[in-house]
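Input record (one chain):
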Amino acid sequence: MLAILFALLAAATNGVASVLQRKANLDEVEADRTGVGALVDLIRRPLWLTAIGAMIVSFVLQGAALSSGALALVQPLMALDLPMTLLLGSLVFHRSLGRRAWGDIAVMTTGTGVFLFALDPTGGSPVEASGTEWALAAGATGAVVVLLGVAGAASKGNRRAALLGIATGVCFALTAVFMSAALAGGLTAETFTRWQTYLVAVAGVTAVVYLQEALRAGQLVAVQPGVTLSDPVVAVVLGVFLFRESVRSGLWVVAVILGAAAVVWGAVRLSRSPTLAYAEDAEDGRTGGELDFRPVGQERNTGDQG
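The corresponding structure, as predicted from the sequence alone:
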């Protein structure tokens, strides 16, 4: 099925973008740059620009998947960007994957398969939604993003990172919803007359900005689960209630829950993997719960210690 193929390719490309963005953001953290200054500096970095290029390719592939498959099918497959990020990170950060990591990858991948098989999303169309339903769904989802952003701005460290990570995932889901509506019937001249087409850019850019702040705010284990899990959950809900996509019910719900639990388990454990995790340095003399975003095991060059 083309939708599945394009979704998996989009997840893989997004994994490349995640690793490259993380590597670029490490320099900003070490230089103690945040906010607009950090974003301006990132724009001048070839590595970060490459990451954004990979993200754009991922959006294109995701659009191809959404134009030929249900929203509730495509977005859960996008969650597989986490194990793909781990595999790529093992190469970029020169860390080998242990048996535990491979086991967690298998659990998360299997859980995704069980979830989608049990859910079996079919049918539905963006044209099924009325203007009122669009206003309610987009407005409520946008309000959640704003509230998460405000709560994140008032927080620090890993709490801030987690809240902004969830906001990022919700933004990605909203981006997918708008993209699916924009590409209803394929990429044609009519695509550019639909208001959803232009909100794809708004939601997408918002997601990117939130993601940069989340990556600088705390550890990856705080950021990634929220990004990985909130995206498919919100997308499935909107796909069912806004696009009228059909999913299985009855005893199949048990399998859906078990599959989702496996995905959550795998996502949390993979985010804690030493390959991508960043540890607190308890002896670096800093206070306020600030984090050392260097890869675990990398020694700090203090310059004044013997």
